[in-house]
Amino acid sequence: xxxxxxxxxxxxxxxxxACNMFLEILEDDQADTHDRILAAELAGDFTVINDExxxxxxxxxxxxxxxxxxxxxxAISLGPVxxxxxxxEFDDPDAVPVSQDTFHKIRESLHRLYxxxxxxxxxxxxILEASVRAPLDWHQDAVRAAYSSDDEDWKLTAVFSMRWVxxxxxxxxxxxxxxIH
Length: 181
Known about the structure:
The chain is mostly helical. It contains ten helices and no strands.
């Protein structure tokens, strides 16, 4: 089954080897870039994500020779599993498809990459958008800095991120008022 068909197929109907297919494509830097982007997008689905796929997504994200769009997609695909693990807190081992060690590795890796000024802006924005789904103390300062930026892309990322980070009710209302007027 090819990736384009999988994209149009509900995840619960994917073949059992879908995880392996995504892993193989993500790890093959000679594979078609569009296929790798689609594999990164699909790899974040709860029906397939696991420690091994997280490792492949992080490997792509950390490589500065990978296309920005692929790196950004890899970051975004980590968001849902971060959120679920943060909500569940590993009380029920079956509720989270990754280990607690992997959860912490994702958080640490995203924070480190976000702080790296050499990481392209688009990738850093996607890292912030994914990482806020399991908020940490550093997120408030990052969101505040993004919101106060003159860069409209960073402002958009900040407003998106405010959904998960507490303390931004006034800024959310302000952003909504700007849209309405």
